[in-house]
Amino acid sequence: MGPPRMLRTIGIAGALCLAAALLPAPALSSVIAITASGAGDTAALEEIQIFGERPGPRLWKVTRGDHVLWILGTLNHLPRKMRWRSSEVEDAIAQSQQVVASGPSVSASIGPVGMIRLYFQWRGLQRNPQKTALKDWLPASLYARFETQKARFDGDDTRIEELRPSFAALRLYEQAMDAAGLTGRNETERSVLRLASQRHVPVRRASLAVENPSGVLKAISELSPSVEVSCLEATVARLETDLPMMQQRAAAWAVGDVDRLRQLSFVNQTDACLNALSSSPTIKALIDQASSAWDNEAEAALLRNRVSFAMRPIYELLAPEGPLSRYRAEGYTVEGL
Q1: Per-residue burial over 6-38, b = 16 or more CB atoms within 10 Å of its CB, e = otherwise
Q2: CA-to-CA distance for 276 and 165, rounded, in angstroms?
Q3: Any long-range contacts for 281-286 (C-beta under 8 Å, 24+ apart)?
Q4: Is the pLDDT of residue 17 over 80?
Q5: Which residues have CB under 8 Å from 231's CB, separation 6+?
Q6: What does the CA dihedral 137, 140, 144, 146 come to, rounded to 10 degrees?
Q7: Do the bridges between strand 98-100 and strand 59-64 make them parallel or antiparallel, or are there none, so unpaired?
Q8: Could you tell me the residue ranges of all domains in the chain?
Q9: CA-wise closest residue to 89 among 159, 200, 191, 239
Q10: CB–CB of 221/125 below 8 Å?
Q11: pLDDT tens-place string over residues 317-326
């Protein structure tokens, strides 16, 4: 990662990026191909293919008076070669005065020299302190499980042993997604933003200002790696049990099967990683700020525009205390399952 990418990782990247990697429509023409190759005792993951016209990813309609907010539930870890097209999504975007992206826009007042310093600070905090190794911070049983997963996905990766538990969890998880033929990027959102550009619909992101990015990274570095063990343990547990379910979620999402997605709910390792980082008051405040930023931006769009379009990870939408439940509780009309 070079300096041009740094501002995407500093600020919330220091706190959130490592944790975050650690959720009836008309026709959708989709092709899903999920394949994986493993090493050692890892069997190839089952190939799933879906062809033809499909209902497509779910859209929810939130109404207040004569104002409408369409919300698309997105899903990470989709197949890299997946193609989808939803005329319902295209029509909703064409009618909208604004599209609200799911991720915030991070800003920090820092010059070129400060950016370089921040980059090296970021690089340095990823390693365990005082030349300790990952093994020194993990219980023997957890380290053995970690070694098993590392052997499955990249047994030659020696650098991972130098990383703090949260960063090791992120690195292992990314390797697993790559081996499973899945992408951790939000390809659905990228497609929607391209459609918005083609339709000349302005895109708005929630704003997250980081006044002291160096202080954010310093707060992470001051945490003992021992508080991050739960993050690595949750990541290992998910890789041990959940890879086949990721494929099924992708298939269910592609046909708008929300009931099936609910049945395929999972324990998200992100929660454990966020809880670990939240032991720092500085990081907790930043996480809380980022969590509320989208809610504020989406509600503002609903009040401001006759029609708006927003995106949010689908498992956050489906959560008992998620945005859809809050809209209903506040008296808005919510159409959809």
Answers
A1: bbebbbbbbbbbbbbbbbebeebebebebebeb
A2: 11
A3: 282/215, 282/216, 282/219, 283/15, 283/216, 283/219, 283/220, 286/11, 286/12, 286/15, 286/16, 286/210, 286/216
A4: no
A5: 19, 22, 165, 166, 169, 269, 272, 273, 276
A6: -30
A7: unpaired
A8: 3-335
A9: 191
A10: yes
A11: 988 889 999 9
In the block, tokens 């959102």 appear at 189
Query: What is residue 9's predicted lDDT score, i.e. its pLDDT?
Result: 39
User: Mean pLDDT, to the nearest integer, of 203-230?
Assistant: 88
* Contact in structure between 25 and 58 (CB atoms under 8 Å): yes
Give me the amino acid identity at 88.
E
